[in-house]
Amino acid sequence: MLSGAARARGLSGCTRRRWSLGCRSYSAADEAKPNLRPLPQAAAPWTSGEKGLIEVRGRSFAPDSWFNIPPNVLETTSRRLHLKLDHPIDITRRLIESYFPRPGFRHFSDFHPVVTVEENFDALGFPPDHPGRARTDTYYISNDKLLRTHTSAHQAEVFAGIDESADGYLITADVYRRDEIDRSHYPVFHQMEGARSWNRTKVPGGDVTAAIRKDTAKLARHDLAVEDSTPAFHPERNPLQDQHHSPAEAEAVAAHLKLSLENMVAGVFSRAESQAREEPLRMRWVEAYFPFTSPSWELEILYDGNWVEVLGCGVVKHQLHVASGRPSRLGWAFGLGLDRIAMLLFRIPDIRLLWSLDKRFHQQFRGLSERPPQKLEAFETFSKHPPCPKDVSFWLRGDSLPDIDVIEVVRSVARDLVEEVKCIDRFTHPKTGRRSKAYRIVYRSLDRTLTHDEANEIHEQVRRELEKQFGAARLRQVFVPFPYQYHHPEARPGTGTMADDRSESPDSGAEQQPRVRKRQRVRLSCLECRRRKLSCDRGFPCERCIKSRTPDRCSYESRSGEVVHASSSSSSSTNSSGLLLLDGRGRHGTGSEDHHERLRRLELEMSQLKSQMARPYDGSTVGGTRSPSTYEDDAAEIHECIEAVNLAGENGELRFFRGKGFRTRYFGPHNVSMAFVELNGLCPFMRETADEWLRPVILHDRKDRKRRHEERASASAQPDAGLAALLPCRGETDALVSVYLDQFEQIHRIVHIPTFRAAYGKAEWPAAFTVLVLSMLAVASCIHTRDGLGLVKTASDARQRAERWIETCDNWLVRQSQKHRKLIHFQIACLLYLGKRVNTIKKKRFWTGSGALVQDGVAVGLHREPSYMAGKISVYDQEMRRRIWATVQELDMQASFDHGLPTLLSQLHHDTNAPRNVDDDDFDEDTTELPAPKPQSEYTFASFQNLARQSLPLRLELSRLLTGPPSDVDYDQVILHTNGLTHEIDALPSWDVIDTDKAESRGKPLMAYTLLHVQLRQYMMPLHQPYLKLRRQNSKYQYSEVIYYNAARDIVLLHDKLQQEGVRALSFLREDALTTAINLCSVTMLQPRGSTNMIMINSHHTLKLIEKCIGMKEDRLLRCGNSEPWGYSIMCAALGLLEVHLGTKTVEEARSTSAESPDRAKVTTTTTTTASMNGSSISNMARPSMTPFTFQPTLPASVVDAAGTGALGLGDAAQLFELDPSLELLGLNLNELWGEAWELG
């Protein structure tokens, strides 16, 4: 439906870029076109005077005076490259079609290329004076038949034939346009257009907006960066079809369109091998104009450092649906050029290669059509043949001659041997008014070296054909300057002067007076650097051409006009010493006496270089002569001097990465070490200075360094009696370590379990390993169900011991050298942070603590992919670096969400790959290659980290929105992000968590399953919270109420399932019980009393959900003691408020129950402690309920040891909680909530 032709806005639009929608756009001729559809008598080239028939793909047509198709174009009509197996065009077509599968999309690819003028122009609304109708742009068979210029010529046929079973279509076809000649243009190319529509009469309830949004939510989500600052529509630049579409409908269609095409482009271009090695793929949307759509956009990608247009698209204009007999439909359409995309994907440098029959070209793509690999290998150039540029100039008679006519003649003669044709000069004589033109024609063969004799012969044929076609009507005389290179005696090309005779007409009979030519300055830079306007070092080939991987384009122009190709041995003459011999005019020489002077100068330069090289180097960087051959030596010196490794190869992303294993340091691109690279000569100077003055110091330092290294190794292997004394008995240590490994290592991969168990089984532990074990014990202390629960003041003895262990390990870690940190130090740091979260130690520092972990990780380069340093980091350490970094990421993301503060990760570029989905038994410290990852449907202990990485970009974006300015979020974004969260949740595997037998055999995946769901659902509540109170003003916000309620409900149910399985790690790590209880109460109390909506109907279930939350908090209080009573008190008060709102209790009853709750908690805790001292079983105690509801004991029954270390004297039980009646510090004043009668005990 969209094509390059449709893009032009009259003549002014033709000045835009040459690739429109991936296809070539119509271009206005350099001269004005007074008659865009000239009469037959207007002198048009290739007019057929024969009365025979023209056969095109099995069908015969009668040409008339409009016929202007050259033989070389007619021959291509039967090629159909888009259907040729294993051709790059066919491979690209299949890749794109895979993202628009049947039966939802119908695929058409075999339409006949001959169409009528009505189909190609009139039916599509092209105005009569549109430049696309001109014979200078279009190939005509007759005045009513032509070769299609775009696939949109078949849209009416497709719309009429498509049934209701398909909602979209794709059309692929070869299209034909008269166009210029260069490496990216050809008269035949391939287009693909697609469309997707919805029928208003078929969607449920007639709400097409809701149907489109529902379909959008089902689409896959890519993880690439997309820049989209364009509005859904703009009244002037990108108008809405307000007579046919509402703003909501247009926005919904645009959202579906953009996500569909982004997924396709991301999937296709991520397969490019070169793109994987270079900068990450990025996309952006820009506004555009097309006759068939409004609003319209173009999608561009950042490819090779440049923004490249890939396709055009937009919301289909309603009149097109009306014309096709489908007035009830609305939808979107897009168009792209397959040739363009194929050349980008496979790095094909010349479009003529796509039409080549050379086996060396086609064998590189064998077998790719049916089984395309994940990474498409770039095309390897098999020829580096030099170009042969030739010039032709002529006088014009009367009217102008469009460039396209000359181009067609050249292509018809030279076929695919011509690479480029461009007009280099136009001249109008100031006296006579005569006009002249000069063209440069570049000949180059794709499979062999084209000699100058062969090029001259072809060029002569071109000259004769030009005279034949235009001699009688357009030209006065054709000049072919010898030696076939055009020169200007008066000025450079394009200045308005003409070569040779300017004052006399060739047929005036005046005697031609020879003029003295100005001396031509030899241009020393290569042609490629001159074209790119860059400096050139004049090497053979030059350094810039080597770095840009285009040494085959490096060529030099001599004074005679001949081109010296730097990379071709056949295009240069060398003597026995390998020197290129040029004469005084820059032409090739043969080593005769004519070159004596040049050889003498070269010998003099060589002697000067030798004298400079023999002179001692003084460290100066000025005046030195550098040869390209010295670059590698200099680079080696710099590498040795600063001991830096450039890990990003040609990309240069990772500038400096020092060290090995976990003893690494990462330096950013602006580090001071960059000055060492820029300052040439510094390293040799430092080396000479060190050799002369610092040798004794260096020798002493090396001996001392070795001694220090041995002392550190010996000290790290020694045990620490003070640390070992803190360990409990071996049985309790084993139990706590087992709890940690079974629960926490499922979500936060910190240790390699087989390696840890091997070290754990040794008789004697080094100090660092003892600290590691103590950190694990601190994490699992309160979670482990054991005998003898007691209190020390207001904290349980388990928490008291954990706090002591954490303090000791913290002090030990602070004393360790930052320079010599190893894997175990990072493991201890992560475990200490977990221990503080589980035991609620220094809660206000959780966010800063996670930020410190991120900063430590960045300082050693954990945020960069470790495989870049494969030579210095073992495979085992690479995978452990990925796991530690994934752990730090998740800890920082959760701390950011809990505190409502931004995360450091949102401002950090990190490219570390996700940990592989492999079991710990599959690799160890001696592994040289990681095993292949298991499918995500198969659970391992690394599954959580592997899957959590998929949703990390979305969570980072949500974190940025939620912690940024409130004005940055609108409701459409909220809906879009909600759909994104829903899609991520739906993509998570189930692992048969309901099947207990299967779950046991694979390590209980329920915990990882729960956290993957919870960390996504938690974002839905703050996203929709601002819109809850707007529900009464606008019914559309009812969606927010439902999403908000369901998210809170699902989180409670997921946690409750864990509690039933005896897994408490998540409820201790997170505050979901408190937040979901408050959220459920909040959204329910916003509903009017007596309402019959979904939330009020399920209110009795809501009370039970809040019960479950209080039960989880109660369990934590019993295990940790009263370290934080405020959350528990708030939950009880919230429950009372909800009961009053629902009418299940009177105000007095709710006040009394909520006021008694803290006292009941005191009694429960006191009873538990007393039972511990008396040796009674907890399950046998008459424990009062913390709410008016009856709770089942969440703590399993166990026999209490009366001699437990935690059984201390408690004193007054009323002082256990030390409650303050005022909760203003929490932002809640219960006196205001309940009135003057509110009292605490």
UniProtKB/TrEMBL annotation:
Residues 525-556 form the Zn(2)-C6 fungal-type domain. It is an enzyme of class 6 (ligase). Residues 486-517, 552-578, 911-935 are annotated as: Disordered. One of its GO terms (cellular component) is nucleus. It holds the Pfam family Fungal_trans. It comes from the Eukaryota. Keywords: Aminoacyl-tRNA synthetase, ATP-binding, DNA-binding, Ligase, Metal-binding, Mitochondrion, Nucleotide-binding, Nucleus, Protein biosynthesis, Transcription, Transcription regulation, Transit peptide, Zinc. GO terms for molecular function: ATP binding; DNA-binding transcription activator activity, RNA polymerase II-specific; phenylalanine-tRNA ligase activity; RNA polymerase II cis-regulatory region sequence-specific DNA binding; tRNA binding; zinc ion binding. Residues 383-476 form the FDX-ACB domain. It catalyses: tRNA(Phe) + L-phenylalanine + ATP = L-phenylalanyl-tRNA(Phe) + AMP + diphosphate + H(+). It is found in: Mitochondrion matrix. GO terms for biological process: DNA-templated transcription; phenylalanyl-tRNA aminoacylation. Residues 552-562 have a biased composition (Basic and acidic residues). SMART domains: FDX-ACB, GAL4. Residues 919-928 have a biased composition (Acidic residues). Residues 173-372 form the Aminoacyl-transfer RNA synthetases class-II family profile domain. Residues 567-578 have a biased composition (Low complexity). InterPro entries: aa-tRNA-synth_II, aa-tRNA-synth_II/BPL/LPL, Fdx_antiC-bd, Fdx_antiC-bd_sf, Fungal_TF_Env_Response, Phe-tRNA-synth_IIc_mito, Phenylalanyl-tRNA_Synthase, XnlR_reg_dom. Its EC number is 6.1.1.20. PANTHER family: HEME-RESPONSIVE ZINC FINGER TRANSCRIPTION FACTOR HAP1, ZN(II)2CYS6 TRANSCRIPTION FACTO (EUROFUNG). Is responsible for the charging of tRNA(Phe) with phenylalanine in mitochondrial translation. Belongs to the class-II aminoacyl-tRNA synthetase family. This is Phenylalanine--tRNA ligase, mitochondrial.
